[in-house]
Fold:
Amino acid sequence: MSTEINPTRGEEKMTHSKTEAPFGQGQNVGPAFGSGLPAADFAQRVRLNQQKLRSDLKPQYDFIVCGSGSSGSVVARRLAENPNVSVLLLEAGGDDDVPSVMDADKWPTNLGSERDWNFQAQPNSHLNGRSVPLSMGKVLGGGSSINVMTWARGHQSDWDFFASEAGDPAWSYASVLQIYRRIEDWHGAPDPAYRGTGGPVFVQPAPDPNPIAPAMLEGARSVGIPTFENQNGRMMEGEGGASIIDVCVRDGKRQSVFRSYTFPYMDRPNLTVLTHTLVTRLMFDGKQVTGVEMFYDGKTHRVGAGLEVVLSLGAIQTPKVLMQSGIGDQAALQRLGIPVVQHLLGVGQNFQDHVAFLCRPSSGRAPLGERVRTYRRARRKFPCRAPRMPHGLACLSVGGPYSVASSGPKAEAVSV
Ligand SMILES: Cc1cc2nc3c(=O)[nH]c(=O)nc-3n(C[C@H](O)[C@H](O)[C@H](O)COP(=O)(O)OP(=O)(O)OC[C@H]3O[C@@H](n4cnc5c(N)ncnc54)[C@H](O)[C@@H]3O)c2cc1C
Structure:
């Protein structure tokens, strides 16, 4: 089937010969999102609906959301809640319905796989010249489909800083706390002042933590670091502390942001989700964005946006696509021969990341060769990353995703 998708460049036709991705087959065991259908039937409805929508792509949608990661999944869903607008969600990666995404305990198998952009940092003199891998999700759900599933709110001081910088109290901790409560479906001890129930995001205290985790907390307490019932309530208002983490895992299954927000709306006629689609640049009329150029099904296509284009491509790809579109530091753009649409300093600058590291129990009795192999495997899967988390938040993973989080100035002392 062919669909002309660009009214201004009639020669471009979109051909759909590709086998459709099997959305939601088999792996999703969650509820049927209030549809009254068993989960498998709902998944089938989604698959058929998306097949139909993909085979009839339009030249223009009201909104085009680029990137289906943690942020794009929420934006696409919230827009699609209005049945009167059409939403196109574009994702470079493929379907998330594979065991390594769905089964919480398989999360490390995504790192270095086709579901990872596999970026590599420049060699860093502060890391003995090493060049560390920078994993980023390339799959429906983006990072939320390959991450460690820790549910970690921002600290009060960070939110209040954002509010003062933006001059907008909506960013303040007091305001955002109410949003956190609204979006959570908290399955720990009831705490209505801090935690919410009935929202789209399933959260629970790490079930069955490794015995090292409570021992770590005891260790923190013994050196005077306050410990908390969880990391997302009072601890985010304090000077520092430690707790067992909260996780977005239900019955051993990952609850990604994509599954929590977007998937439940994918049986609707106004939300089209395209996978294996690389957004290459924005289209303009003067300085007004009119749509996107994308690489899909072996060809370049253009799709118009009647109302807005949202770029939610992650911390590396969002500035990259902006720069490819001519938005950024004009000196850098001119060096690369990219026509400047808008000179904007800061695009592609100030990238920050946080450290991840591994502590694995090792037995002195294991043969040396085996210990070295284990260590090398671990180093490949759990690379060190720099610099540090905002507000000194550090997580220590002990034998899986169920671990201890600590925050504040003393955090690294505890965690390292
Ligand atoms: C290994 C790992 C573990 C983590 N652990 C945790 C954790 O336990 N808890 C936590 O809170 N956070 C964790 N994070 C961080 C968290 O997942 C990210 O901060 C979050 O997902 C970022 O959301 P985003 O929407 O900005 O980008 P992303 O989630 O990265 O989404 C961007 C999306 O855009 C797509 N995309 C990019 N370029 C293009 C293009 N040109 N065209 C089309 N699509 C494109 C990508 O494929 C991706 O799906 C972890 C991250 C990683 C990598």
Observations:
- The longest strand covers residues 299-311.
